[in-house]
Amino acid sequence: MDKNLIQRTISGIVYVAVIILCTTPLGAQLINGISPDLVKQQYLYYGLITLLLTVGSWECFKIMKFGKSYEKWIVFPLVILIFYMFSKRYFHHDFYFDFRLTEILALLLILIAVITLFKYPSELYYDSGKLIFTVIYVALPFSFALGLPKYSTYEDTFSLEVLFLFILIWSSDTFAYLTGKFFGKHKMAPKISPKKTWEGYIGGVVLTLILSYFIEKYQHDLRGNWMVVGFLVAAFAPLGDLVESQLKRNFGVKDSGNIIPGHGGVLDRLDSFLICAPVVYLYFILEKFI
């Protein structure tokens, strides 16, 4: 068997296992089985998001090749400040009880950053543009990801929204790839991602909707309607891949990093999550008022 394939398989299994352990009560149960009351699930999830944010910020910093100006010295302080503000809301259960206009404005910033990347890439060649893009593209999505699950300290429960979000993203990518491989003829973005086709995109949407139907049918404790979530994920996950591909293309980089052997970096693996997490979070906060 090809050595690279073995490496990819092992690292892929470890990656999926870490996601499952940190986004479900299983992680805390396993650890507390060794030493009772050692950790709560919300801390494992917070640790996961903190790690992904840290590595992802460093990868984006390296991709964008900052110059010698002062902006590169304030990238990480700004990332930490934003994440700290969201972290306070996470531990005080403040994500679920009110609607904030600032959240909508922050989500709009992600849209503006994506438009800038595709339509006005020259703006990202200035260190000020690199600073703004890095903070918006990495810090905001991971910060909003803290607001996806709900947990109760008193009842010691942790909801599974993030796990099923990952499952839908993985299924969307897989379904789109397989449909495109067998039926794809019309390229979606040949200069950015030559293998993506409109047939694959449609197949990914349809088959992910079928999977989300069963999630909605059998997982009644999840927030929102998961047929809607499934559609949003299938619709926006390919955009996340295109954004990451365009970013690397603009700066002549093949992979964002090598922390996951055979798979690249955090941004390579979580490109769809960076777009889907804020979109799904927006749906969750709007769903309460519909």
From TrEMBL:
InterPro entries documented for this protein: PC_trans (IPR000374)
Keywords: Cell membrane, Lipid biosynthesis, Lipid metabolism, Membrane, Nucleotidyltransferase, Phospholipid biosynthesis, Phospholipid metabolism, Transferase, Transmembrane, Transmembrane helix
Family: Belongs to the CDS family.
Domain of life: Bacteria
Catalytic activity, as annotated: a 1,2-diacyl-sn-glycero-3-phosphate + CTP + H(+) = a CDP-1,2-diacyl-sn-glycerol + diphosphate
Its membrane topology: Multi-pass membrane protein
Residues passing through the membrane, by range: 12-31, 43-61, 73-91, 97-118, 130-148, 160-178, 198-215, 227-245
Protein known as: Phosphatidate cytidylyltransferase
Alphabetized GO MF terms: phosphatidate cytidylyltransferase activity
This protein's record includes keyword Transferase: yes
Enzyme Commission code(s) on record: 2.7.7.41
Listed pathway(s): Phospholipid metabolism; CDP-diacylglycerol biosynthesis; CDP-diacylglycerol from sn-glycerol 3-phosphate: step 3/3; Lipid metabolism
Pfam family, one: CTP_transf_1
An annotated GO cellular component: plasma membrane
Lineage: Bacteria, Pseudomonadati, Bacteroidota, Flavobacteriia, Flavobacteriales
GO biological process per UniProt: CDP-diacylglycerol biosynthetic process
Subcellular location per the Swiss-Prot or TrEMBL entry: Cell membrane
